Amino acid sequence: MSEDTARIVAAMTAKARDAARTVARAGDAQKAEALIAAAAALRAAAPAILKANAQDMAAGVANGLSAAMLDRLKLDDGRIEGIASAVEQVARLDDPVGQVIDRSERPNGLVMERVRVPVGVLAIIYESRPNVTADAAALGLRSGNAVILRGGSEAVHSNRAIHAAMVEGVVAAGLPADVVQLVPTQDRAAVGALLKAQRQIDMVIPRGGKSLVARVQEEARVPVLAHLDGICHTYVHAGADPVMAEAIAVNAKMRRTGICGATETLLIDQDYPEPARLIAALLDAGCEVRADDMLMELDARTVQADETDWGTEYLEPIVSARMVSGVDEAIEHIARYGSQHTESIITDDDAAAAQFLSGVDSAIVMHNASTQFADGGEFGLGAEIGIATGRLHARGPVALEGLTTYKWIVRGSGQTRP
Q1: Domain spanning 3-225+398-411: which CATH class is it, in words?
Q2: What is the pLDDT of residue 228?
Q3: What pLDDT sits at residue 211?
Q4: What is the pLDDT of residue 321?
Q5: Which of 140, 254, 296, 348 is an S-S bond match for 145, by CB 3.0 to 4.6 Å?
Q6: Regarding the domain delimited by 232-373, which CATH topology (the fold level of the hierarchy) does it fall under?
Q7: What are the structural domain ranges in the chain?
Q8: What pLDDT, on the 0 to 100 scale, is given for residue 389?
């Protein structure tokens, strides 16, 4: 690591620690005001943001980014409005800081409360999607945290333009600009410095591909909140309504193929009455279907699947498809090949749905709904920082509550311990 990079990161973490103390004491109204002002600044800066994004898109094409990555990177007027609206939605959410989680009174008269408090300083390390710059800043500030953002080189110009608008809102509300910082260098060593900043960084959140998340988990000396692949499954049970099954399966795969909630594997019950129609619907929608031997017999346009397909996150218009003998085999397949992200069963059989919902060990399990709903906004949580697939602290869409911890407040009336 160069001395310059080390100094940059050390200075940023020190300023973030000071800012975290300030924003932790900020009131609900002031934090909401900062985000409303930031949303207005984003809309006003739309021409500058689009110009910056055009630079990133041109570089992405020249560097051979995939269609899925370019889709994640691209901004237009509609997406900028969506980013600004998401920031406003976070502003309107209830402030989690200070909420009493539970309260009890002990026999000796001591009153015990668990109260939500900010985590402190968050480092968000992410790739390609420039909207994460605004989402992470908004969620971090609203939950009373200071945030250090380190975006990918693919979106460097877009991130800087969005960050500038967010800071404008923060300052307009009287909060320190250092509440939301963007690492100014693309030196990869800066990531390593953040991961080792014990006592300065309280939690690291990686949002990106498998290699990024793996690096963070391997190198971090501070707590990590992460998910790996979004290998999501849609299981069409024998009791599924064919019209519903086709609509959900096509939407789950094809609405946006480059998001982590896109279905990557379609499981079809051997007793489902219309498997050929289901496969044809996906093929007709422009999706490549990599099928097992039984499903390949139904449509000549399918491609032979191999063992690697069941554990692949395509992020493209490709789906693997397999026939299973029932709910148990569907659950077994998901346990073996899935990433504990999002799975859905399509059926009118309530008993089968209950068996699937209780038996699948993923962060999000659905019944008769598209996996594309795996999104914090759709859960009513506002913008999200990601979908956590681990078991500790937070699971599923990580929004405001996932960015807080708690402390115990004990009130007495002179008690001493015998």
Answers
A1: alpha beta
A2: 67
A3: 83
A4: 98
A5: 140
A6: Aldehyde Dehydrogenase; Chain A, domain 2 (3.40.309)
A7: 3-225+398-411, 232-373
A8: 83
In the block, which residue shows the tokens 């008690």?
415
